[in-house]
Write a structure and sequence with these properties.
Length: 369
């Protein structure tokens, strides 16, 4: 059976997914070059400062690119950044036709890439597999349009909504399969965020493990962010012994002696305004956005998740549900904070998806605005 246009774009999307976790703050893009119904070049975005997907595919295609068709998951860039514009590379290679899944929301591109290709006599088609392309680059799209990171609230809970027993024991509510999947999510985000109580109680490592690239003997790890209003994180915590960088977000001004000890331990201290005696998570989101951190996995605990939901900062929710009942008024619920007074005020999820990991269930979805 002959491959179709949708098949070729599907291949480009698969390549784009391979780039997730490596390209930030650039989008993860995939591209293929097709000549006489055969793939002659494939590529995906390389780390920031290195070639984009289109250039990688064109390099592989070489002279076969002339008169060929390109399928790319995001509109080709048409401006000089850390690399030359991809539109010029496409034009110079002699590509005859370009299929584009998604327009680039970046104002520097946003339709201008297509315009440049059209002016060079190259036919363009837009919109094939657009939803899939949007999902792959959901963090990039939010960041480029708002300058804020994409926040994923993730937690594991029992059937009765508890994330720990009354004695704060939480290992393990989720099963091994679910935890392994979480590492694959950690692999593709720019940062992992927890509250200080999670560090004090669980002493986590907050690393991506068991995944290619960022896991195992890794060349990079997501930034670890500890929200610690009073500087209570112990200097011998596990997070400080792992590869990668750790940042403590605290209320300003931090005690000078505490701050100096953190700095000597190689930890960055970010001092922020307070809101009700705690770090203002709105200010925190803006501060990390300025660092071009596109995606953040907020892993709890209850108080931090409550602050993010109360501030309407959560974009996506990932909840692992284990078939156990913990019970007890003293056992912590998954999401703390102020919450809402009426059901109509509750934050609703759309595009809900349900997956099984053994006897655990993952419910994920996007918070409606």
């Amino acid at each position: 059976m002959m491959a179709t246009s949708e098949d070729y774009m599907g291949c480009a999307l698969s390549l784009a997914r391979l780039a997730l976790g490596y390209t930030s703050p650039n989008p993860a893009v995939g591209a293929v070059v097709v000549k006489d119904s055969a793939l002659v070049g494939v590529g995906h975005t390389q780390p920031a400062g290195l070639p984009h997907a289109e250039v990688m595919a064109l390099r592989q295609a070489e002279e076969k690119a002339r008169g060929a068709t390109m399928y790319v998951t995001l509109e080709p860039c048409c401006h000089y950044g850390k690399t030359p514009p991809c539109t010029q590379a496409i034009i110079n290679a002699g590509i005859a036709e370009v299929h584009i899944a998604l327009l680039d929301p970046n104002p520097l591109v946003s339709g201008n890439g297509i315009k440049e290709l059209n002016e060079a006599g190259i036919e363009t088609y837009v919109g094939e597999h657009q939803k899939e392309a949007e999902e792959i680059n959901e963090a990039y799209i939010k960041f480029i349009t708002t300058s804020l990171p994409f926040f994923i609230a993730k937690f594991a809970m029992s059937l009765d909504g508890k994330i720990a027993t009354r004695s704060n024991q939480s290992k393990w509510i989720s099963n091994r399969e679910a935890r392994e999947y979480v590492h694959s999510v950690r692999h593709i985000v720019d940062a992992i965020m927890v509250g200080v109580n999670t560090v004090l109680i669980d002493d986590p490592r907050l690393t991506a493990r068991g995944c290619s690239g960022k896991g195992g003997n890794t060349k990079s790890q997501p930034l670890r962010i500890i929200v610690d209003s009073k500087g209570r994180t112990p200097l011998d915590a596990n997070v400080f012994k792992q590869p990668g960088e750790t940042l403590i977000a605290t209320v300003k001004p931090m005690d000078i002696e505490k701050k100096e000890k953190f700095i000597q331990a190689g930890v960055e201290v970010l001092e922020l305004p307070a809101k009700e005696g705690k770090v203002d998570v709105g200010e925190l989101s803006r501060a990390i956005g300025k660092r071009e951190i596109l995606s953040v996995l907020v892993e709890g605990g209850s108080a931090l998740l409550g602050s993010f939901f109360d501030s309407h900062l959560v974009d996506k929710v990932m909840v692992f549900i284990s078939p156990i009942v913990i019970g007890g008024d003293g056992a912590k619920a998954a999401v703390g904070g102020n919450g809402v007074e009426s059901i109509i005020e509750a934050q609703h999820l759309s595009r809900v998806d349900v997956k099984s990991f053994g006897d655990n269930i993952l419910v994920s979805g996007y918070v409606e605005r």
